[in-house]
Amino acid sequence: MAPNETTAQRWKWPLTIGLIVIAPMVYAVCPPQFQEEWVQPMFQAATTTLKGAVSSVDSTLSAQLETESQRLTSAIAVLTKQKALVANQVATSSHNSAQQTATAMNVLSQTERVKAARFDYGGEFGQGYSPCAVYATRQVMANRDAEMHEELGTRVMSEIAAAPGRYADPVQAQADQLKAHQGFCTADQVASGLCNAVGAMPGADLTVATLFQPAMEGETLYNAKVAFINNAVGLPDGPVPTYAANSGTAAAYELAKSKKDAMVSPAMTALKAIQLDYSGVNAAHGGTDLPLATYYDNEVKRYAGNSPENATWARVMSAQNERGALVELLKIKALDLSIQGRQYGQYEQMEAMLAALTATEINTSGSVNQTNTASERATRQQVMRAVQ
Predict the structure, then answer these.
(1) Distance between the two ends of the chain, CA-based, in angstroms?
(2) How confident is the model at residue 379 (pLDDT cuts 50, 70, 90)?
(3) What is the domain extent for residue 145?
(4) CA dist., res. 262 & res. 352, Å (int)
(5) The dihedral of CA 209, 188, 201, 233: what is its sign?
(6) Which member of 42, 61, 123, 132 has the greatest number of CB atoms within 10 A?
(7) Is the whole-model pTM more than 0.70?
(8) In sequence order, what are the residues at sequence separation of 6 or more whose Cβ sits closer than 8 angstroms to the Cβ of residue 18?
(9) At what angle do helices 131-159 and 322-364 cross, to 10 degrees?
(10) Closest CA to 276 of 346, 333, 202
(11) Quick one: 241 and 97 in the same domain?
């Protein structure tokens, strides 16, 4: 305590502090009283206004929320449909793309197979030169060769006046040969009075070279071939009279003619075979076609040169693969075998003619008569021994 402070002053401050603390407590216990008569209606009006405003806001907000909810639901539905449509389109696109890819791969694979097949088996690279044309030609050649073998015997009997086993009037046959020769008369024959005029092909029926010239049946050259063979063979043997048919002379005559026909038949057949090889005749089953020798000549020239087709063949073969070259080599080998087969047939004809010449030589040398005499002598001896 200060030296100059009094007692009143010492109690002044605690009292003041006590009043400050107690005053709010007294106010809280005894608040001021309002006038409810005019405050309460104002609170009710304010509450009603506030409730109306809240209800209006609530209704408006509810309507907006409902509208927005419908819009949102519609938007979600549209979005869902769009997503479904997009997903369907994506799936369809994926399916179409996969299908197109598979189709393209199939086309590529098929193209590769076609290319490989065409390269290996096509006519451009893997089948040699012009396979269709060559096959057709070879087929015609094979058929024509078989037809000529069948036609050979028929032509020998129908076109040769002195054919084996044929009996005809020699005088009439001579007249027919002279008439056929009129188209082939030479200048010397006209000068000698044997012919009236020089023929269109002088001497064609008198030379063997005529047989080796290609001709079609009905042409003058073909008639020259027939006339040449008739001139080479000679006139036919006359027929045996009916009243003497059973006589011993007729039997001996028939035996002698049979022997002669057998001797000369190889030559007749060989000459006629040459004629048919170089002639386009009307076969019984195949009709008229080019001579078989012409087909062989064209085939050989294709590979050996000396023809316009050889240049084309060489150009095509330069583009062939290994298989095509082997196929073409087989075609050449087949042609070679066919030619060798024809040569073998010609060798057989030559062998038959040599055998006929040998038999003719034996007959003309008298050895046959000696053999017959010896046979008769041996027979008589056997009979005498049997009697003894």
Answers:
(1) 219
(2) low
(3) 131-168+236-364
(4) 10
(5) negative
(6) 123
(7) no
(8) none
(9) 10
(10) 346
(11) no
Cα distance between residue 59 and residue 289, in whole Å:
112
Q: At what angle do helices 248-277 and 220-233 cross, to 10 degrees?
A: 150
Residues 115 and 257 in one domain: no
Residue 329 corresponds to which tokens in the numbers above?
């080599």
Instruction: Please tell me whether residues 104 and 163 are part of one structural domain.
Output: no
- pLDDT, one tens digit per residue, over 65-106 is 888 888 888 888 888 888 888 888 888 888 888 998 999 999
What's the rounded Cα separation, in Å, for the pair 42 and 74? 47
Same domain, 149 and 80: no
Dihedral of CA atoms 158, 163, 164, 170 in degrees, nearest 10, equals 130
Distance CA 56, CA 37 (A): 29
Nearest to 151 by CA among 57, 309, 320, 288: 288
**3-class DSSP state for residue 283?**
strand
What residues are paired with 216 via a beta bridge? Answer: 280
> How many independent structural domains does the chain possess?
2
Phi, then psi, of 216 in degrees rounded to 5? -100, 150
- Residue 168 in tokens: 């005809």
Please state the separation of Cα 299 from the chain's center in Å: 21
- Taking the C-alpha atoms of residue 78 and residue 84, their distance in angstroms, rounded to an integer, is 10
Q: Which of 239, 274, 321 is nearest to 148 (CA)?
A: 274
3-state DSSP assignment of residue 125? coil
What pLDDT, in 10s, does the model give residues 235-262?
999 888 888 778 878 888 888 889 899 9
Query: What are the DSSP calls for 59-98, one per residue?
Result: HHHHHHHHHHHHHHHHHHHHHHHHHHHHHHHHHHHHHHHH
Supply 28's token pair. 């809280």
pLDDT single digits (tens) 340-357: 999 999 999 999 989 988
Residues 100 and 80 in one domain: yes
pLDDT at 246: 81
3-state per-residue secondary structure call for 285-306: CCEECCCHHHHHHHHHHHHHCC
Rg (CA), the chain: 65
* 148, 294: one domain: yes
